[in-house]
Design brief:
With 1296 residues, the chain is an alpha+beta fold. Strands 1, 2, 3, 4, 5, 6, 7, 8 and 9 form a 9-stranded mixed sheet that branches. Strand 12 and strand 13 form a beta hairpin. Helix 1 packs across helix 2. It is elongated and about 145 Å long. GO terms for molecular function: single-stranded DNA binding; telomeric DNA binding.
């Protein structure tokens, strides 16, 4: 008992000390000295503690401790509740009743005692009390906001004990929370009773007439109005003035009058007013609002609010108040009616608009969808939008588990197609939100920011409707989800600041300017609240199709890949007339690669591409990245130069004009074209996705922080030069780290031991840099760059590339990597100074993370090489680390090697062609240093002798070719080990490259499949710069080029959108001029320059058919297919599928010369003049015997060819070949047959025999050309004459 008594005494001492320290200095309530105040507090505590039936009267809560307001805010980091008057069973029963959301726990119980003064303003140091309409619990240590379910105005400025309360901190760390008062507070001192005398009042029906009187009066009369509270607006703060409206309704009619309350000390009325209760408001004045012209009652400084009691009011006659001016009767429509609905018959909508329904709703908040956007979920099925109201209390109390009652709220059904909720409730300024019950769940408070809230700023700036606002919220949430980890939430969502708008605002404002009509009016708050005919942004709405979308890159990837395979149909990829004649190998090879392209408009809604630009060292490509995924990208410049802007690394880019390319690789075993619809023959498939766009179509939403300092500190640095404007059309700041960091690269110093000397002398952020010119760049391949000592027994092959550069000027020392380097003047040189220090040729070796610089380095470009945290100029002269170093030093150019460290940086300065003349001194070594780019006609010339060539052109066609058995593979063995590719490594891709759009001069480029992993954008229609390709001449005198390890490819321009044929697996640009209108020529002109023309067209006369062959072959082994099975016996072929093949050799002439034309398959039917039905019948008859061969005789007959025995089919075909119907004018599209035996010399003559009646004579004539038919068209003679006339008048240019 002594211990218990001692504990009680210690508790009492602590209680009295707490009261003296926290309550007495506040001086807000009455009560005398500190001792008297402490006794009153203890008396109140005993009374409240003893109110529980399980406890005895007069006891003290020894298990509880006092807590001040400051300690509550600073020390309590998690939500808690305190129930002083409850027993343990009562608390358990209370907790058991709140099992709505199973994922949240119940508020933990804390044994704390909260005592303080209840005020309506926050007390600031040295200033007066600031009233904002909120309630606070205050003591001498501070004040904390509080929320009530029941409040009375008499409680203000009194000292209370709060027996049941909950403290809810904010979600952000270190932010104070607020207090939820769960039960009525207990006053420490008895409250004085208010004595109310009889009050003369007007009822709303009479008061409404006073608002309509237009007569002037001398004195400002104050009057009292009694009525039922019909509507209560939210607290509004406009232009730093806080106010609210209430509407008093007549007891016997629907008339009601508005009352404006704006006096600071009366704002607390908002907490005590209850809808449906009756009140008397005293000392009201009539006033007109300047903004809207409405007349309302306004509370005066002496106004007060009283509960209505019929015995204490007296109705006042109208004439007593207004002596001047006649009182005019007012129609019922003159007063406000709550049931009035707006009829917007004059509003014109582009499409029929829906009208929202106004209703009341009671529900429980189950989730806070977006606190800043004021979006909540009710009852797990309805979305509540409070954005169109101001939440002056920062949405305190609106937590999951709280019960709310909504009056006069708008119901909208499916306002946005992509929004997950079908039903959306929206509150306007006439709606009322009532908090019916606090949440019992252990959740934090998510406050709504009143300033800097981009959601609210854009909503009110554009007066958005709810569908467009929901789309806006969705876009901001996606941006935050995708890019907060790169940019930070503040930079992303911040509203306009002196430095400019934030990232999200830059992205959304142009879209809103285009979507929102310019005639939208500014929202009129007073009119929305007071107008007789209700009008608000929620009244009418149009279900919105989102203007655009910007999903995460992972979702974009899956959407594009899924759509590419959804539209994939093998039967539609190949022309049916060609596919039916293909064998199994050719058929599946033609299907092995195809591609699909998507633009922004290919998606609904329109797809906007957003991503942070990064340089990947894994695949040595540029990438657009967000939190979910990354997509490789190919960036080109419209001027024709490669993309080199290293300052954009780390920048957030927006692209609306782009091509999203999905390359499909398919492994299949289709027996023939008839089974193309049977998808079970598809054995494997994979995709490769990337984006292509022009740099000029990029909108930069964010760049890392920029900082430019002075020039270099090197005392011997050359004079300052100017950077020419050709280097960049747009001034782009350098990022926070001067030349941005590559993917996966740390900012630390280099780990190489040879850098120690420089590192010790470079404490701080100093760095050295040196300017260089790229003279040659080699492609990505596996090379050996490891030192012999580290390589062990065998040298490791690693993916790498190398660039030959020329040092320009001496090294420079920068004080910080953020400094801007100066452009040195290029020194003069002569033969004796070729090996000087200032200008020396170096081979830069890139391995590992430095591979990320591959997309930025291009020949003829001037770059800075920056070594951070180093001041040793010798870092650029390290001994080579490659086993090739000794071999390279033996070369005449004496090229040294320099292995690029992962921490080194590069910055593009300009192009050599953009340097001003003053920058290039006479006799500079740059004279003639520009890379030689040949034209395709030059490469096709017989006099051309170079083996390594560079050229540019447009891809006309891309095909997958199988390497012949006697040809050596084009790719090194180390490149064949790539994983995940379904394309066979021993195949190659043939690119047919034209010299210019519309030119028929074409050069074939062969690239081994093993190299394709690191090559992007090789599509028909793309303009490509090929560098260091090997020029070869085939045994048929065909000139072609092959891609070798030292080769490199740069995409100068992606295919034009109108020139893509994405469904063609052969990769033919459908609208290329070369494919549509080949050059119209005479046959005699083909003998002049046979190599300069790849395809041509001629108007000629088909003389006769010299040879014809029709046969059915096995689709697998190509043996004769007869009577439904393959004829091969050793070994037997199990194939049951055959394909028809036909060939014919016809003779044509155009008056200037004649040629032998080889036709195949469908071209044979066109040459014979057979219709599709007749051709099908011929093929069916040939199928029974397997083959039919016909020789028409003459010198062109093949030696050793034996015709089949005569039958009905053979007789028909022989008669057809000899008939006059064959001889007719045609329009022939052809290509040259370049076999050596088929290319006659211009001066070669052959002895020919001619018959004229019965006379036979011999003559020497020019050799016949051998052509391959591409197409035969029947044409009207008039059309042919017109074409012939055009051909004669048009000069023929073989170099075009």
């Amino acid at each position: 008992m002594e211990d218990a008594g001692g504990a009680e005494q210690r508790w009492l001492q602590a209680a009295r000390a707490f009261v003296c320290e926290t309550l007495c200095p506040a001086g807000l309530g009455g009560g005398g000295g500190s001792e008297q105040l402490a006794e009153s507090v203890l008396r109140c505590l005993r009374s409240a503690w003893g109110s529980c039936a399980a406890r005895g009267s007069g006891e003290l809560p020894l298990g509880y401790s006092f807590i001040s307001v400051s300690d509550l805010q600073c020390q309590q980091r998690t939500p808690c509740c305190s129930h002083l008057t409850w027993s343990t069973n009562e608390f358990r029963q209370w907790a058991h009743q709140s099992e709505i959301l199973s994922k949240h726990s119940i508020l933990p119980r804390a044994h704390l005692i909260l005592i303080g003064y209840l005020t309506d303003g926050r007390l600031q140091e040295g200033k007066e009390k600031r009233r904002d309409g909120n309630l606070y619990v205050q003591d001498s240590t501070g004040s904390v906001p509080c929320e009530f379910l029941h409040f009375e105005s008499e409680w203000l400025e009194l000292l209370f004990l709060f027996p049941n309360w909950a403290y809810i901190p904010q979600t952000s760390q270190g932010s104070a929370g607020y207090v939820e008062i769960l039960a009525d507070p207990v006053p420490v001192y008895p409250r004085p009773e208010r004595v109310v005398n009889t009050v003369p009042v007007f009822y709303p029906a009479q008061a409404a007439q006073l608002l309509s009187i237009r007569a002037q009066y001398k004195e400002r009369t104050k009057l009292n109005v009694a009525g039922e509270l019909a509507r209560l607006s939210t607290l509004l703060c406009i232009h730093h003035k806080t106010f609210f409206f209430l509407f008093l309704k007549c007891f016997t009619s629907a008339a009601c009058v508005p009352v404006l309350v704006q006096k600071p000390h009366q704002l607390s009325w908002h907490h005590m007013l209850k809808l449906g209760h009756r009140y008397v408001l005293t000392a009201l004045c009539v006033s007109g609002l300047k903004a809207s012209g409405h007349k309302v009652f306004v509370s005066s400084f002496s106004s007060c609010i009283l509960p209505y009691c019929a015995e204490r009011v007296k109705e006042q006659p109208l004439e007593i108040t207004w002596q001047e001016g006649s009182v005019q009767p007012v129609s019922p429509e003159a007063s406000l009616h709550l049931s009035s609905r707006v009829d917007l018959t004059g509003e014109k909508w582009l499409v029929p608009a829906k009208e929202s329904k106004i209703l009341s709703y009671v529900g429980v908040i189950t989730q806070v969808l977006n606190a800043q956007a004021s979006l909540y979920e009710l009852d797990k099925k309805v979305c509540l939008c409070l954005a169109y109201q101001q939440l002056s209390n920062s949405a305190r109390g609106l937590r999951p588990g709280a019960c709310v009652e909504l009056r006069d709220i708008h119901l909208l059904q499916s306002p946005l197609a992509s929004f997950p909720f079908v039903l959306v409730l929206g509150t306007c300024l006439q709606s009322t939100i009532l908090l019916k019950g606090f949440s019992r769940l252990n959740t934090f408070h998510e406050p709504v920011a009143s300033s800097g809230n981009l959601y609210m700023q854009l909503l009110f700036r554009y007066n958005l409707g709810l569908p467009l606002y929901l789309w806006l919220v969705n876009m901001l949430e996606i941006l935050e989800q995708r890019f907060c980890c790169f940019i930070g939430r503040r930079r992303l969502l911040i509203h306009s600041v002196p430095q400019g708008p934030g990232v999200a605002e830059k992205f959304l404002v142009p879209i809103l300017n285009a979507v929102v009509p310019s005639k939208e009016q500014v929202r009129d708050v007073h009119h929305e609240i007071l107008a007789e005919m209700h009008h608000c942004p929620l009244q009418q709405y149009q279900p919105l199709a989102p203007p655009c979308q910007a999903p995460p890159l992972s979702l974009l990837r899956s959407m594009a890949e899924q759509r590419s395979w959804d539209v994939f149909n093998p039967s539609q990829l190949l022309p049916p007339l060609e596919a039916q004649h293909m064998g199994t190998q050719e058929l599946n090879r033609r299907l092995a690669w195809s591609y699909e392209t998507f633009s922004a408009e290919s998606f609904q809604p329109r797809m906007v591409l957003l991503g942070v630009l990064r340089a990947s060292s894994r695949n040595s490509s540029l990438q657009l990245r967000d939190k979910s995924d990354s997509i490789p990208c190919v960036i080109s410049c419209r001027g024709g130069s490669p993309f080199t802007d290293t300052a954009l690394i780390g920048s957030l880019l927006q692209v609306e004009t782009y091509q999203l390319v999905v390359e499909r690789n398919l492994k299949s075993d289709f027996p023939s074209w008839e089974q193309l619809l049977t998808l079970e023959h598809m054995r494997g498939k994979e995709t490769r996705l990337y984006a292509q766009f022009f740099f000029e179509d990029v909108q930069i939403l964010y760049t890392p922080e920029m900082k430019v300092q002075g020039g270099p500190t090197h005392s011997d640095s050359p004079s300052v030069g100017k950077k020419d404007v050709c280097s960049s059309k747009t001034e782009l700041g350098s990022p926070e780290v001067k030349v941005p960091k590559l993917e996966g690269t740390s900012r630390g110093a280099s780990t190489d031991k040879s850098f120690d000397r420089g590192q010790r002398s470079a404490r701080g952020a100093s760095c050295v840099s040196r300017l260089f010119l790229v003279t040659q760049k080699e492609g990505l391949t596996f090379r050996n760059y490891l030192p012999a000592a580290e390589g062990g027994g065998g040298q490791e092959l690693r993916l790498s590339f190398q660039a030959t550069v020329l040092w320009m000027g001496k090294p420079q020392l920068w004080g910080h990597p953020k400094e801007k380097g100066t452009m040195p003047e290029l020194e003069q040189t002569n033969d004796q100074r070729g090996d000087s220090e200032a200008q020396q040729r170096v081979l830069l070796l890139f391995v590992g993370r430095s591979l990320g610089w591959f997309p930025f380095l291009h020949p003829d470009g001037l770059y800075w090489l920056i070594v951070p945290q180093c001041s040793d100029f010798g870092v650029f002269e390290q001994p080579g680390l490659s086993p090739l170093q000794d071999k390279l030093l033996q070369q005449p150019c004496r090229t040294s090697c320099l292995l690029v460290s992962d921490t080194w940086r590069f910055q593009h300065e300009t192009w050599i062609s953009c340097l001003p003349q003053c920058q290039m001194a006479p006799g500079s070594v740059l004279a003639g240093m520009g890379q030689t780019v040949y034209s395709i006609p030059e490469l096709l010339s017989n006099s051309f002798t170079a083996s390594l060539v560079s050229f540019s052109g447009e891809v006309v066609e891309r095909t997958l070719c199988a390497s012949s058995g006697n040809e050596k593979t084009l790719a090194p063995c180390s490149m064949r080990r790539q994983k995940g590719s379904l394309l066979p490594w021993d195949h190659s891709v043939k690119l047919s490259v034209s010299a210019a759009p519309g030119s028929s001069v074409v050069l074939d480029v062969y690239i081994a499949v093993a190299y394709l992993e690191h090559l992007w954008g090789l599509l028909p229609g793309a303009k490509i710069l090929f560098q260091n390709l090997q020029r070869k001449i085939s045994r048929f005198h065909n000139v072609y080029c092959t891609y070798i390890p030292s080769s490199c490819i740069s995409i100068l321009a992606p295919p034009a959108p109108g020139r893509l044929l994405s469904s063609n697996p052969a990769g033919t640009a459908s609208n290329t001029p070369a494919a549509i209108s080949p050059t119209l020529v005479f046959l005699s002109h083909l003998l002049l320059q046979p190599h300069s023309l790849s395809q041509g067209q001629t108007v000629c006369h088909l003389s006769c058919v010299l040879a014809l062959s029709l046969q059915w072959v096995c689709s697998i082994c190509s043996s004769i297919f007869r009577e439904g099975r393959c004829s091969r016996h050793s070994p037997p072929c199990p194939s049951r599928t055959g394909v028809s093949q036909a060939s014919a050799k016809v003779l044509v002439e155009d008056g200037t010369g004649e040629a032998l034309v080889l036709c195949k398959n469908q071209q044979v039917a066109a040459a014979l003049g057979l219709s599709p039905v007749e051709w099908k019948a011929v093929q069916s008859n040939v199928q029974g015997r397997g083959s039919v061969v016909i020789q028409h005789g003459g010198a062109s007959a093949r030696p050793g060819c034996v015709e089949e025995p005569e039958d009905l089919v053979t007789y028909y075909l022989r008669s057809l070949c000899r008939s006059r119907a064959i001889s007719r004018p045609v329009l022939l599209t052809f290509s040259l047959n370049r076999k050596p035996s088929k290319i006659p010399q211009p001066d070669s003559l052959q002895l020919r025999r001619f018959l004229s009646g019965e006379v036979e004579f011999m003559s020497r004539v020019g050799a016949r050309l051998s052509l391959t038919c591409l197409n035969i068209q029947e044409a009207d003679p008039k059309v042919l004459c017109c074409l012939s006339s055009k051909r004669i008048k048009t000069p023929i240019s073989h170099s075009a």
